[in-house]
């Protein structure tokens, strides 16, 4: 891997270019693993790798997912594309299996479908810290705390109603909920989200079953929501 990363220094790549190049290497490795007998697009081994088609799509992917996907999630994201393409085509992917398949709306939809199944699988495992079980209310409160940290970090301040309205308009909030950046409990109860949605159906907007989460919204959780998201409840 060290030798494979040499072009980063050789061609004096920027931080973003280096990230895109690493994604091209990851895509190449995952393709070979999932489809060992398929003739894949090659990662450019000589010359500037930034001129390759894979790099250009990897760079585009970074632009599309900036602030939404964490670096550690790109492996899962690329794996999702390959797994779903394999399922949908019975392994006979042919021209579909190019780097263009991991960018755009269809790629994002594949990711959401795969990630939902992945999360449900992971949820079946016991929620523990070390050997200590965590109760559901504690887990929900932790999700809400992380939600606030994420929103404040993303906007550089506590988001305003206009910020939330814009994040719904550009689908960012949908992506954040899907990826676990924003808790679905926040999406269900946030006064700002409710105002921003207006007459829109929240279940269709976020593509999750409201009942699964609504049942856990008791007085304790609602009280906690009001305490840590107090700016939204103070606005008249």
Q: Give the terminus-to-terminus CA distance.
A: 57 Å
Number of structural domains: 2
Class based on secondary structure composition and strand pairing: mainly alpha
Bin the strand percentage.
under 5%
Describe the structure.
By secondary structure, this protein is an all-alpha fold. The protein folds into 2 domains: 6-123, no CATH class; 130-234. The protein is built from 14 helices and 2 strands. Strands 1-2 form a two-stranded antiparallel ribbon. Helix 6 runs parallel beside helix 13 and helix 7 packs across helix 10 (191-197). The relative contact order is 0.08. The model has no long low-confidence stretch (mean pLDDT 81).
Characteristic terms for this protein:
236 residues; mainly alpha; two-stranded antiparallel ribbon; 2 strands
């Amino acid at each position: 891997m060290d030798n494979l990363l040499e072009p980063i220094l050789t061609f004096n790549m920027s931080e973003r270019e280096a990230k895109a190049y690493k994604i091209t290497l990851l895509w190449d490795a995952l393709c070979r693993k999932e489809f060992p007998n398929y003739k894949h697009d090659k990662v450019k081994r000589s010359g500037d790798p930034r001129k390759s088609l894979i790099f250009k799509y990897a760079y585009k992917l970074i632009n599309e997912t900036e602030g939404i996907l964490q670096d550690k999630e790109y492996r899962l994201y690329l794996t999702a594309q390959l797994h779903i393409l394999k399922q949908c085509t019975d392994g006979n992917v042919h021209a579909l299996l190019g780097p263009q398949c991991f960018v755009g709306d269809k790629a994002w939809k594949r990711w959401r479908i795969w990630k939902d199944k992945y999360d449900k699988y992971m949820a079946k495992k016991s929620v523990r810290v070390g050997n200590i079980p965590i109760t559901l209310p504690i887990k929900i409160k932790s999700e809400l705390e992380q939600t606030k940290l994420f929103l404040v970090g993303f906007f550089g301040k506590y988001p305003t109603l206009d910020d939330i309205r814009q994040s719904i308009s550009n689908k960012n909030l949908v992506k954040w909920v899907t990826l676990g950046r924003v808790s679905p409990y926040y999406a269900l109860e946030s006064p700002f989200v409710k105002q921003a949605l207006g007459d829109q159906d929240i279940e269709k907007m976020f593509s999750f079953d409201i009942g699964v989460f609504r049942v856990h919204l008791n007085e304790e959780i609602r009280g906690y929501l009001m305490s840590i998201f107090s700016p939204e409840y103070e606005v008249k």
